[in-house]
Design a protein that fits this description.
single chain, alpha+beta, Helicase, Ruva Protein, domain 3, two-stranded antiparallel sheet, disordered N terminus, binds calcium ion
Amino acid sequence: MPYLFLRGLTHSAAACLLLLLTACAEAPAQPLAVAPLTPAATAISPPAASAPSPLLSFEEWRSLLRSDAIAAGIDAELFDRAFAGITLDPKVVSSDNSQPEFTRPVWEYIDGAVSVTRIAQGRLLKAQHRPTLKAIRSTYAVDHEVLIAIWGMESNFGSNIGSHNVIRSLATLAYDGRRQAFWRSQLLAALQILQAGDSTVQGLIGSWAGAMGQTQFMPTTFNQHAVDFDGDGRRDLWRSAPDALASAAHYLQASGWENGQPWGFEVNLPQGFDYALADPEVRRSLAQWRTLGVNPATAVDANQQSLATLFLPAGHRGPAFLLLNNFRSILKYNNSTSYALAIGLLSDALDGNPGVQAAWPRNDRQLGRSERIELQELLTGKGYQPGPADGIIGANTRKAVRAFQQSLGLPADGYPSHELLQRLR
Ligand code: CA
């Protein structure tokens, strides 16, 4: 499921904290999956009136919502059926507020996401669904492997689609959560899905944050990108694998997927390499990277004029990757670099390619959330500009870390290691 500003609870979301290229835009998640990134544009315009919920009871708030929904074209009878018996869900509120101290290191996340079991199951399903995948490729020009990988990551191939009542979850978040306007637009989009007849009221289930079906689409993403590929007249992402796979393909196509091109690949770096080049803002052609001594770890077929960025998910002591345009397309699905890396590596494995060659620095101690906040505060105290002390290692924090590393003559990989925090102290 595409994105979130929710953090915690999911592997992907947890990895988000450490590895986002940008701040985790938004997105909820559930085990083994992150909600797909919902595009900024929502299918429904934000409602005009939206009083701060603390001033209203849930019933009063629902009554205002009902008027807005009817004005937006939702049948009153449908609204009443969808909201029959709906109460606030305290577990959703606590999930929304959850800010876990510890998150899994990227290598543990990758181990779980690209497991031997998942690869084997993915290969089997790729073979079973070959005719459908071929038809999808003809329509949307998206490769088989990445679709199977997304299917595996989002819902463990359809076996884990969540069991929350989506209307209840979204109503809770829109009434009581952070970013209420966002949740309200998702809630209205969910009502539109019911209005369109794609799901029954009882069938509208998903993650605690409203990500739905085998692709874990948020409602606005559903309305923009879900397709009926098996021809039964409904976009059924819950029960139809062809609909789910084609919808993921449609979304990737809209995100600029280049069929037949790699997402990226592992590289070896030369001795004395300038790690400051591992910056999302530094884009070079593959040919230029090659002249800098950055070479593929295994044979790769890619256009040498393609632009790529260098990515060190665990700092200079871990594996290095060059990332191409398709990596960015995956990030539009879910704005977590760990997630996109897992999708890429799982796709490669489904295609029979070997896994990561270099060793992960598995003995490195990860910073907890309070330590990341301390790191940001210490950097600010020394005159750097890591951005707000929120414990999220985004582009600004990486830049500040890099500048501090350079001032000490350390490898400037921008990675917030425990050793670096000690130096700051
Ligand atoms: Ca269908």
